[in-house]
Amino acid sequence: MGRFDKYNVDLKGLKTATLEMEFDLDNAFFGDIEGEEFQKGAVKAVVTVKKGRDVFDFSFVLNGMVVVPCDRCLDDLEIEVSTENSLRVKLGDEYADDGDIVIVPEQDGDLNIAWYLYEFIALALPMKRVHAPGKCNQEMTGRLNKHSVGASDADEADAQEIDPRWAGLKNIQIEEDN
Questions:
Q1: Does one domain contain both 94 and 157?
Q2: Could you list the residue range(s) of the whole structural domain that residue 120 is in?
Q3: 26-73, pLDDT tens digit by residue?
Q4: Cα 102 vs. chain centroid, distance in angstroms?
Q5: Shared domain check, 153 and 82
């Protein structure tokens, strides 16, 4: 039995019009999936599959938290996750994923949703991932500030040495229409 076999959905063998599954995604799941965004967390996933005439509609409800590195100090940062996503799946000749619909080979008849669970969580994370003010690692913040001050001194020196050919542009005023 493989690491992700419990995330297989047998589409051809689906007996009822609606199937609901629950998964507890933990550190073992995130470590096994080897994603780049995060490897720790605790997320509850509720997946509902509705069987239509020729399409399967998946609904994903994911709630919990994941641990990511802080963008500022690189210490672990817990981020709450709460997201709902959907996926349409059809049976066909060969595998295809065009973004709107996933086609699963009819000869296989099943879809492993482990990677979709991970991706939906990753998409729910904010772009900027930092601790609340004052919560970052103080040692790292101190080092960052030390290097940032030196960089701003260099920027000020560059600003004072303006090429005389461009200095005249400071005097141009733009008239605004009312």
A1: no
A2: 5-124
A3: 999 999 998 888 999 999 999 999 999 889 999 999 999 999 999 989
A4: 20
A5: no
